[in-house]
Structures are given as structure tokens and as C-alpha cells.
Structure prediction request, 274 residues.
Amino acid sequence: MDIENLSINLATTRGSWGFAEAVEACLARGIRAISPWRDQVAAIGLDEAARIVHANGLRVTGLCRGGMFPAATPEGRRAAIDDNRRAIDEAAALGADCLVFVVGGLPAGSRDLPATRRMVEDGFSAILDYAIAAEVPLAIEPLHPMYAADRCCVNTLKQALDLAERLGPDIGVAVDAYHVWWDPELPEQIARAGRQNRIFAHHICDWLVPTNHLLLDRGMMGDGVIDLKALRHMIEAAGFHGPQEVEIFSAENWWKKPGEVVLDTVIERFATVC
Prediction:
């Protein structure tokens, strides 16, 4: 079974394993690409996480996550910028393909979405030179509009690409099936991203019907309504042939199953429905 282009976002096995255990299980199945979350790296220590990655020749398809730029006060915005610089350092130590950004939503008490989006752009401008010096690509991940208020005020691939164009050639996008599958402009925007060499990551899972939780009820590939093969064909036609990164938040289903079952199901579904 060809799993060369399979990456496991370690959120997928969060219910069972920490960083080291997840890596061990992936390696046992021939999976050599991962994408950890910063709290998982912090739990084991950045030096140890980097040692595990480099000793095993792992590809880190992304580090999750940077962002959360908007804040109600200048102090809060400065703190976010400082934290994003630390995230860049962590991504550099791990040799990550990119640092993935969930940019943040409305500050407490605000209803001003345009101002919030300006804070995001200002935040990226403040860290861009630092990221370039560290040789860490930055990937804006547009999130489904249901997250516009609290998690991410960049909600379509077009918005993400427009922002990236204003910031310069060193910022790209992470295309997450869960967040963009519904967008009627998706084919045109994926092609646009490909022309600009801005596709830095491709995340997959499925959209369940009904969805029982806006954040923690993502589906295993094949259990929902997303045409994952069509999305992959669009992304490959646009020139991106990197790993598909499986990222599943599933508090009441997959996080309650043994990690071995989760990974074995991922491998089977990757071969059949992706």
C-alpha cells in the first residue's frame, strides 16, 4: 500500500498518544511524515522532539499553529507577535515545511471584522522578516466561516491568497478540505494558488452530516460528504504533490478509539477514498 504521500497530523491520535508514542506508531506502519501541535512539542520538550524528528529522518509537513493576532489591547497584540516568533523558532528547530496559521477572530467586545482583519495583516507584517531569516514558510489556513468570530477571520481561499499577495512571495496557504470544500470558487482559487506557488500544505478529513460539534466532530475520510479525490486532483493539477496531511478532531469518536485502530483506518481510507 502506497503511503509515501501520507502525513499524520498528531491531533488525529491525540486521544491515545503524545509526541513520541505517535511517532513510534507511525514509523511502525511506514509513515514517515507528521505534523505536530505546539503543545505536544512542549510536553516532550523542543530539543527532544527535534532529536526524534531528525534521528528518524521524519518529514514535518507543518507545525500547528501560529496566529491568533487580534487582541483588544496593544499589549495583547504585542504578546501575540512575540508568541508567533517563538513558534517560528520551534518550526525551524523541527525543520517543518511550514508554520500553519489560524489567524484569530474578533477581539473581546469587538464587532469590527474589517479592523480585526487589519490586525491580522499587521501581525504578519511584524513577523515576516523574522520568518524569512529563519527560513520558515508561513501558511495561512482559511477556516470555515462558522469560525469567523472566535478563531479565524480569514474564511475563504480567495481571502487568504489576497492577503498573501499583499504581504509578498514568502507566504502561502494551507488548503484544508474541512474548511474549503463548500466554496464555489475553490477550483479557480486552487489554480491561482498553484500559479503563485503558494500551496504549502494539504489537510484532509471529512465533513459529517449531521455535524454535532463545530470543532471536535470531524469525520474520518469516507464517512462524510467531501469529494476528497476531486480536491486532490485539483491540488495536484495546480502543481502541489506533497503529502496529504490527515487532521481529525473527534472528541466523541476517533479520540476514544485505540490509536492503532485510528492509524490503521487512516491508512485504509487513504488508499481507497483519497
In short: The longest helix spans residues 113-134. Residues 6-273 form a domain with the TIM Barrel fold (CATH 3.20.20.150).
